[in-house]
Amino acid sequence: MMRAILLMPLVLLAGCEPPAEGEPVTRTRIDGKAEPQEQVTPTSEPTESVTTQVESACRSIIFEDTPLTHCLATPSRHTISADLGPSGGEPYRSLSAFSRTRDSAGIAFAMNGGMYDEDGDPIGYFVEDSERLQTLNTNDGAGNFHMKPNGVFFGSDGKWEVRSTDDFLANVTERPQFGTQSGPMLVIDGQLHPEISHDGESRLVRNGVGVDERGRAHFVISNAPISFGKLARFYRDELDVKNALYLDGNVSALWNPVTERLDTGAPIGPIIVVEKKEASSE
After folding, report:
1. What angle do CA 181, 275, 225 make, to 5 degrees?
2. Complete edge-to-edge strand list for the sheet that includes strand 206-211
3. Most CB atoms closer than 10 Å: which of 15, 101, 146, 187?
4. pTM, whole model, 2 decimals?
5. CA-CA distance, 256 to 38, in Å (whole number)?
6. pLDDT digits (tens, 9 = 90+) for 65-76
């Protein structure tokens, strides 16, 4: 897919948690019915057998009285890519628009993935189909994106990683097949981000991604407002993820075809797409 490299100047972050009065994300099903809220006791490490038994790559759990949806991508069963919009076109701006372009049978799930400007274009590093559409952003500034260290979620050929921006800049020399930059990091080398409090006053629907030592990508979206600290602790304490990245808040959305969940609401930017492999070798 070819698209002109984005050369526009950085503008105010439309994807960095819009004001509370902005349109909230609506949790919905394609058929219009309310999504069932299954409550499952969290475990320290979700097993891959859960994904196999229930078909869906996502499960509903409760962590410290907050409902979350945890979606697991496994290299042997899934591929991950980044998508912004149709070739030569404008960004999708919603999972609904994106869903109309894809066969749902092949999609495990999709989630908004990275911060963006008022037009929906990424403000940080973004690679789609090995084509770099935006360069790495190391600027200082206001907002969650610039709450350093921020980081990059990226991967090629089934090897997925989350690294801080400085780590990525210093050590990643080859362009990945996909990549998206966001911020702040939630967990860095097993430690919580130094500026994130235990359970701060800011509570929004939020989502993030982390990769465990087995190479599996853990995507989490809250189904109720959650603090940065609680989301970060879930990654560190329950999922045992050493590096996790905040994707966004208030605009956070998930498409899970198996359960017919298709979140709608405020416009989004980059999208992370997790697809099923035709056959599993595991």
Report:
1. 55
2. 58-63, 66-73, 217-222, 206-211, 243-249, 185-188, 191-192
3. 15
4. 0.82
5. 15
6. 999 999 999 999
Mean pLDDT of the chain: 85
Q: Rounded to whole angstroms, how far apart are CA atoms 217 and 210?
A: 6
CA distance 72 to 45: 11
What is the rounded CA–CA span in Å between residue 31 and residue 74? 29
Q: How far apart are CA 245 and CA 187, in angstroms?
A: 7
Find residue 66's DSSP bridge partners.
63
Residues 79 and 277 sit within 8 Å (Cβ to Cβ): yes
Q: Which residue has the tokens 């994807």?
A: 15
Q: Is the pLDDT of residue 214 over 60?
A: yes
Q: For residues 112 and 14, what is the distance between their CA atoms, to the nearest angstrom? A: 13
Residue pair 91/118 in contact by the 8 Å Cβ criterion: no
